[in-house]
């Protein structure tokens, strides 16, 4: 193999190596981005779940005593002044 041919062969191998490294970097960056997006959506879902839990407890704290009072025979006209205090 003459020098010119060897140099071209070496340049082609070097270019192929650079291209493979760039493709690997791009794939890694895409994977990192996908993981970040997935992590953000999981955090968002956790926040919504916690918020719904708080709302469910608050509604339960309001509704349960009213149901108990109604089942004990209290009429709504007795409950209204208590609720508006």
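Q: What amino acid sequence fits the structure above?
A:
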């Amino acid at each position: 193999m003459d020098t010119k041919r060897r140099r071209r062969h070496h340049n082609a191998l070097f270019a192929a190596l650079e291209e493979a490294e760039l493709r690997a970097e791009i794939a890694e960056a895409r994977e990192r981005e996908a993981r970040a997006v997935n992590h953000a959506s999981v955090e968002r879902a956790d926040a919504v779940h916690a918020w719904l839990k708080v709302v469910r407890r608050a509604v339960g704290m309001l509704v349960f005593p009213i149901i108990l009072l109604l089942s004990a025979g209290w009429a709504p006209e007795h409950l209204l002044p208590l609720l508006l205090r």
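Q: And what stands out in the fold?
A: The radius of gyration is 34 Å.
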